[in-house]
Amino acid sequence: MKTKAALLHGPGKDWEVDEIELGDPVAGEVQVRLAASGLCHSDEHLRTGASPVAFYPVVGGHEGAGVVTKVGPEVSGFKEGDHVVLAFIPGCGTCRPCARGMQNLCDAGAGLLTGQAISDGTYRTTHRGNPVVPMCLLGTFAPYVTVNQASVIKIEDDIPLDKAALLGCGVSTGWGSATEIGGTRAGDTVVVVGVGGVGINSVQGAAAAGARYVVAVDPVEYKREKALELGATHAFASMEEAAGVVSELTWGQNANTVVLAIGDTTGEHLQPAVSMTAKGGQVVVTGMGHYAQVDAKLNLFELTLLQKRVQGAIFGGVSPRTQIPRLLELYRHGTLKLDELVTTTYRLEDINTGYQDMRDGKNLRGVVVYDDADY
Questions:
Q1: pLDDT average, residue stretch 222-244
Q2: Residues in CB range of 36: below 8 A, 6 or more apart
C-alpha cells in the first residue's frame, strides 16, 4: 500500500512529509493502523547526526499505538482489530538475553537502525522504489506500519491509544530508570536531571516507589513546575543549585540515585551527578549522547573509595512485555499519569513545529495524532 510519512533525508535537514510504499506483512509480521505517535528526543538525534543510521532516508518515530489491520503467516497471539502498543525494543523471546529475562536487551535490537526487517532481512518500507530505514524498525511517523510481532504488545481496548503510545519509549524508560535500574525504595532520595518526556516519568516512578525526596533538575521553568505537579518535592534549574540542598535534606548523605535523563547527555554531566550521589549509590545514565563521544569527566578516586556506580539503562531495564501492561494497570488506578504528559498534539504535516517546540522547552511530550484524513 501507499501511505504518507515524515522522512529525514540527512543530518541537519528538516522532516519532509512524502508518500512511501509499505509492504504487506510476511511471516511473523503484522500491519498496524496507528492512532498516535510520540515525538521523542531520540528522533532528534537522527536529525542532528548524533545517532548513526545505515543510510537515509529515514522514516522517524518509535512511540506508537494503534489497531492491527493485517496479520501475516506464522503470527501467534494477534488478530485483526487488536489494540496494540509498539515497543522500540523488540523481544524475540529466544535469544540469550531474552532467555535470561532481559528482553530489553534482545539481540534483535542490533538491527534497529539498519532498516532490515527482523523476519527476513529485507526492507518493508520504500520511497520511490528505494529502501527506507524505519526508526527502530517501526517508523511511527506514518499512519500505517508493518512490523514484526516481536515489537508489538497487545493491550486492552478501553485504554486511549493516543496515551498508550507513550508507553512505547518515554514512559517505560523513565519509570524503570528510577524503579528498576534505580531500585528506588521507600525513604530514598532521588535526583532526576532533565525532566522532559523521559525524566518526568522517572519523577513519577520515584514518587510512586516511596522516595522521601524527589529532586527535579531542569533549566526550563515550565518543566520544573510540571515535575512538582507530578511527584517532585523540590526543583532546581541546575545540578549546582540542587547539590547543596540535596546534601542538607539528607544530612550530608546525598542521593541514593541520580537519574541523568538529559536529551543530549555529555561526559561533562557525569561528575556533578556522581558528586550528588551517596556512598554506595548510583548514577543511572538514561539520556543519549553522541555515538562517537568517548570522553567522560569522572573522579575515579571518589568512584572507588565511596563505592559509587555509573549504570546505563535502556527501556528502564525491563522487558516491554512486562513493563507496558504493568504501567497501564498503574494508569488505570491513577498512580501513573499519562494524560498530563501530553502538552501539545500535532498533525504529521506540523512535525517540524513539534520538534521546534521540544527544542524550545515548551513540551513534556508532543504527540502526532492521526485522524480519518490521514488514512
A1: 97
A2: 64, 65, 66, 161, 162, 165, 345, 367, 368, 369, 370
pLDDT in tens, 96-127: 999 999 999 999 999 999 999 999 999 999 99
Residue 293 phi/psi, 5-degree rounding, is -80, 130
Which distant-in-sequence residues (6+ apart) come within 8 Å of 294 by Cβ?
Answer: none
Q: Which of 90, 44, 64 shows the shortest CA–CA distance to 315?
A: 90
pTM for the model: 0.95
- In angstroms, how far is the first alpha carbon of the chain from the final one? 11
Residues 328-366 pLDDT 10s: 999 999 999 999 999 999 999 999 999 999 999 999 999
Q: SS3 for 359? A: helix
Q: In whole angstroms, how far apart are CA 294 and each of 231, 282, 311?
A: 34, 20, 16
Do residues 153 and 324 lie in contact, with contact meaning Cβ atoms separated by under 8 Å? yes
Q: Do the Cβ atoms of 220 and 262 come closer than 8 Å?
A: no
- CA-based max dimension of the chain: 64
Distance CA 302, CA 279 (A): 9
DSSP string, 328-352: HHHHHTTSS--GGGEEEEE-GGGHH
pLDDT for 7:
98
Alpha helix positions (H), the chain: 41-48, 96-99, 161-164, 170-179, 199-208, 221-229, 239-249, 270-275, 300-305, 320-332, 351-359
Question: The cell 537515509 sits on which residue?
Answer: 56
Query: Taking Cα atoms as reference points, which of 313, 303, 295 lies closest to residue 277?
Result: 303
In eight-state DSSP terms, residue 220 is -
Confidence of residue 375 (pLDDT cuts 50, 70, 90): confident
Cell of 19: 508518500
Cα angle: 229, vertex 221, 270; to 5 degrees: 95
The CB-side HSE value for 225 (13 A sphere, CA atoms) comes to 6
The owner of cell 535534606 is: 249
Cβ neighbours of residue 183 closer than 8 Å, sequence gap 6 or more = 257
Average pLDDT over residues 156-170: 95
Check if the beta carbon of residue 5 is closer than 8 Å to that of residue 134. Answer: no
